[in-house]
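Service request form, structural biology core

Requester: graduate student, group of Dr. S.
Request type: structure prediction, single chain
Budget code: on file
Notes: please return the result as structure tokens.

Sequence provided:
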Amino acid sequence: MKDITKKHIPLKREYKPMDIITKEKALGLLEKIIKEEEGVSYEVDSDWKTWARIAKVRTEGIFGLGSRQAKKLDSLVEELFRANYSHQRKSDGKSILAILTSSYIEVQEFWSDESIEETVEPISEGANNKKVGVGPHSSDIFVVHGHDHGRMQAVARFTNI
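Core staff response, request fulfilled:
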């Protein structure tokens, strides 16, 4: 008799918009995953699979799901998982490492050093010249909504909120 109490229900993969990550934290996560590759054995499945999965998750966490960085890394991770020989896996791993390194340089050179809690330069709003800023004591909000998390993060960073 078939056991109906243990029904397999596939988990629906839902993503919520990620908090905006600071430049310092993004650089730290990228540095960590880049350094961790040095200890990866492409002959031991658990080593390279774990490293590749963590690299994918961290990239999505930094740049957002659907970002060009996450998409490129995802395609390279898929290639890595399809590789049959350790020398192919090592080559694919080095390609992933190149994307991570270029992402590190991108964050280092183009992301703002200011944290999101800092107040932005006040701007005048209308005739009443009310000052608007962001930070822990600001009651003004700007909502970024959508399904493309990469673009949402880009807009949020651009507006420095």
